[in-house]
Amino acid sequence: MTRAEEISAGLAAVNARIERACAAAGRDPDEITLIVVTKTYPASDVELLAGLGVVDVGENRDQEAAPKAAAVSAPVRWHFVGQLQRNKCRSVVTYADAVHSVDGVRLAETLAGAAQRHRERALDVLVQVSIDGDPARGGAVRGGDADRDLERVAAAVAEAPALRLAGVMAVAPMDWTPDAAFASLARTAVDLRAAYPEATAISAGMSGDLEAAIVHGATHVRIGSAVLGTRDKLR
Ligand SMILES: *Cc1c(COP(=O)(O)O)cnc(C)c1O
């Protein structure tokens, strides 16, 4: 099999899973945006994906994403889905179309400043939510301390002219069932939408748990290994 055939088969399998999950949940597959997470895979794979009709790709480290985005000429949208350090904001805003992992007030402010200076269009931002409330693992916390408090993070994003509050993102904790985790995220999403009606995105679901995410309203699924193959490194 060529690499293009491999990727095409992975993509077909994932699209079939999304369609089955939507049918089971009574949802329209057009409501779901598939983001293929290309971390650890080369720019040439992104070009192959684009040739197969993929529009949205995800990365989790700026050190890898920045050169890859520069090397890809296909018109894909780059989603930054990993933990973001404040000193990387200036770089990320130059290639990302959306950042899914904003979980602090100071991070939101730094990102807003970088977007203001280095972008023409507003940057889509999803607030990463901690499902289990453990601040050690990343994600804003309901009722958390000042910097990581979910409402304050959302407000910091919503108030920044260079950012657009698009919705919420989460990763299911290891010790939760995906069903319980994404049900919790869905409740948070409802609460956020009450305050910010335009914040409609729910970024949830990876290779192992996309079906549960779709049941609970995911609008964006972030899929790496099921499309591109198992990564060598555990990340
Ligand atoms: C790597 C990664 C994914 C994709 O994970 P797979 O299990 O390979 O589908 C999704 N979201 C985030 C934040 C990631 O870091």
UniProtKB/TrEMBL annotation:
Transmembrane segments: none annotated. CDD domains: PLPDE_III_YBL036c_like. Pfam families: Ala_racemase_N. Residues 11-231 form the Alanine racemase N-terminal domain. InterPro entries: Ala_racemase_N (IPR001608), PLP-binding_barrel (IPR029066), PyrdxlP_homeostasis (IPR011078). Belongs to the pyridoxal phosphate-binding protein YggS/PROSC family. The modification N6-(pyridoxal phosphate)lysine is found at residue 39. It comes from the Bacteria. Keywords: Pyridoxal phosphate. PANTHER family: PROLINE SYNTHETASE CO-TRANSCRIBED BACTERIAL HOMOLOG PROTEIN, PYRIDOXAL PHOSPHATE HOMEOSTASIS PROTEIN. It comes from Phytohabitans aurantiacus. Coiled coil: none annotated. This is Pyridoxal phosphate homeostasis protein. Pyridoxal 5'-phosphate (PLP)-binding protein, which is involved in PLP homeostasis.
